[in-house]
Amino acid sequence: MPEAALLTKNLRKDIGSKTIVSDINLNIHTGEVFGFLGPNGAGKTTTIRMIVGLSRITQGDIFINGHSVRTAFREAMCDVGCIVENPELYKYMSGLDNLRMFARLYAGITQARIDEVVKLVHLEDAIRGKVKTYSLGMRQRLGIAQALLHRPRLLILDEPTNGLDPAGIREMRGLFRSLAEQGTTVFVSSHILAEMQQMCDRVGIIHHGRMVTVKTVDELVDMSHSGGVQLLVRTGDNGKALACITELNIQAGMEKDGVRVSTEPARVPEIVRALVGAQIDVFALDTQEAHSLEDVFIKLTGEEQQNG
Ligand SMILES: Nc1ncnc2c1ncn2[C@@H]1O[C@H](COP(=O)(O)OP(=O)(O)OP(=O)(O)O)[C@@H](O)[C@H]1O
């Protein structure tokens, strides 16, 4: 078994008499994009702050590439790049000058390395422009470039897609993929399931300060498929179609645009045959997933996810 890029063991944080997170056990594999998902207030930032040493650990430990954050903090941190909350950027300086200034914090970062990270985050065209002219997505990418300067093996990002439009999220996904392919492990938090599904290999769900589950994105998608499909059937005579479908003991209801049907995928041909047999013209059969990933999340946590 290769060494975990990030391992947390029974991690717990109390603030005053309040337990914010407890029993957090994570095992993040080298080279994967791991999503840390949970509604607002679930404890993601608290966990991340402990991982990067911004907050004291109440109980348990964290190992980064085998080094304990408690007993070997410097060794653990030298391989970590992170953005917690917003990236620290000087708006009135160019992206390049921001990187140059940040590079001085580390020994041995060359202009060639700066050029390399600029290329990695696709900011070549904008890097000489002032940061105040950058879009949110460009600022995030500059922040990531900054976090990558010292070639960390583990990149930790707290809600990097906050406020990004779909194009910005796609860019992030591409960036994480190429980093992971080059062996950088990416640990990224979000409260939006669909984003995690697009960007990650595995997702760990946290709720009320405790881990609910860790699953591959494929497993989550499979769960979302279990339980069947919903169809919207548009026909020449929707009233007749509804009667015909309910006769098959299939759950159906009338909608403005057609008949909504909930069933297992295996029964769809039977529905089509019955409608055709009853001489009802079928114009369209639109399939929708019966259970979205949001539903899976609700199933797993037993509570509605609070978005916002
Ligand atoms: N210093 C603090 N004192 C008391 N409670 C706190 C403190 N910091 C965080 N909390 C509480 O701990 C819980 C977890 O907060 P945290 O910021 O870790 O959640 P989160 O999952 O990152 O959510 P968000 O996406 O909103 O940042 C919240 O209920 C928050 O109010």
Q: What is this structure, in a nutshell?
A:
By secondary structure, the protein is of the alpha/beta class. Helices cover 34% and strands 28% of the residues. The protein has eleven helices and 14 strands.
CATH architecture of the largest domain: 3-Layer(aba) Sandwich
Query: Quick one: biggest sheet?
Result: 6 strands, mixed
Low-confidence stretches: 304-308
The number of helical segments is 11
Overview of the structural elements:
With 308 residues, the protein is α/β, with parallel strands linked by helices. The chain has 2 domains: 218 residues, Rossmann fold, CATH 3.40.50.300; 64 residues, Alpha-Beta Plaits. It contains 11 helices and 14 strands. Strands 6-7-8-3-9-10 form a 6-stranded mixed sheet, sandwiched between helices. Strands 2-1-4-5 form a 4-stranded antiparallel sheet. It has a 4-stranded antiparallel sheet with strand order 12-13-11-14, with helices on one face. A hairpin with a 4-residue loop joins strand 12 and strand 13. Helix 4 crosses helix 5 and helix 5 runs parallel beside helix 6. The longest helix is centred in the middle third of the chain and has 16 residues. It is elongated, with a radius of gyration of 24 Å. The protein starts with 5 loop residues before the first strand and ends in a 7-residue tail after the last helix. The C terminus is likely disordered. It binds adenosine-5'-triphosphate (ATP). The site of adenosine-5'-triphosphate (ATP) has 12 residues, from strand 2 and helix 1.
